[in-house]
Write a structure and sequence with these properties.
The complex is a heterodimer. Chain A contains no helices and eleven strands. By secondary structure, chain A is mainly beta. In chain A, strands 2, 4, 5, 6, 9, 10 and 11 form a seven-stranded mixed beta sheet that branches. In chain A, strands 1-3-8-7 form a four-stranded antiparallel beta sheet, with no helix packed on it. By secondary structure, chain B is an all-beta fold. Chain B is 0% helix and 54% strand. Chain B contains no helices and eleven strands. Chain B has strands at 4-5, 10-14, 19-25, 32-38, 45-51, 56-59, 62-67, 72-77, 86-93, 101-102, 106-111. In chain B, strands 2, 4, 5, 9, 10 and 11 form a six-stranded mixed beta sheet that branches. Classes of the chains: A mainly beta, B mainly beta. The A-B interface holds A 2, 4, 33, 35, 40-45, 48, 50, 55-56, 58, 90, 92, 97, 99-102, 104-110 and B 4, 6, 9, 31-32, 34, 36, 41-46, 49, 51, 89, 93-105.
Chain lengths: 116, 112
């Protein structure tokens, strides 16, 4: 158990809909990262937050947005869903997040999104 | 732009033999490299890492080698065990970069 909690574990929805994925980081971790893993693909970095502030952005679509709340949990919002958005979405947390971004990441079990 | 590449989607090894997983990177700013292991229905878990100031780091059966001039690293597992069967991700980061970049992963099968 990594200590990172993601909900829901599975989600099935239709094209055009909007969903929200939730992540609770490990106790004490200030950084939250979101990654997308499509079929047979690696982990694509989407976005990182540190203590409520966005710190880095990857290949995140404009239809996707995220935020980190004062209690440090994070939500990833996916809107106008398309078939190609079907993927595993992982959240990870770490203690660092400023200029020492070389620490280990602790991953949740992922949220599997299926868009029909 | 794939900055971290794992060109072998899969690898099959006999139990007791050495497994060698390879990874190449393109960004010379990377100064820290990590390997993660992932079992089905679980999130990736950290396995071993290496800083760019080193060329080798060992942890039990796992050794990571870094060749900076070739922008190449490898993970050696000796001896391989059936429980090592998993997907292995190579990852890289650089100080101040705020993000860790992952490769596509290599699926390792260790046959008993």
């Amino acid at each position: 158990d990594s200590g990172v909690t993601q909900t829901p574990k599975h989600l099935i929805t239709a094209t055009g809909q909007r969903v929200t994925l939730r992540c609770s980081p490990r106790s004490g971790d200030l950084s939250v990262y979101w990654y997308q893993q499509s079929l047979d693909q690696g982990l694509q970095f989407l976005i990182q937050y540190y203590n409520g502030e966005e710190r880095a952005k990857g290949n995140i679509l404009e239809r996707f947005s995220a935020q980190q709340f004062p209690d440090l949990h994070s939500e990833l919002n996916l809107s106008s869903l398309e078939l190609g958005d079907s993927a595993l979405y992982f959240c990870a947390s770490s203690t660092t997040g400023t200029d020492a971004n070389t620490g280990e990441l602790f991953f949740g079990e992922g949220s599997r999104l299926t868009v029909l | 732009d794939q900055q971290v590449k794992q060109n072998s989607p899969s690898l099959s090894v006999q139990e007791g033999r050495i497994s060698i997983l390879n990874c190449d990177y393109t960004n010379s700013m990377f100064d820290y490299f990590l390997w993660y292991k992932k079992y089905p229905a679980e999130g990736p878990t950290f396995l071993i890492s290496i800083s760019s100031i080193k060329d080798k780091n060992e942890d039990g059966r796992f050794t990571v080698f870094l060749n900076k001039s070739a922008k190449h690293l490898s993970l050696h597992i000796v001896p391989s065990q059936p429980g090592d069967s998993a997907v292995y991700f190579c990852a890289a980061a650089y100080t101040g970069g705020f993000k860790t970049i992952f490769g596509a992963g290599t699926r390792l099968f260790v046959k008993a």
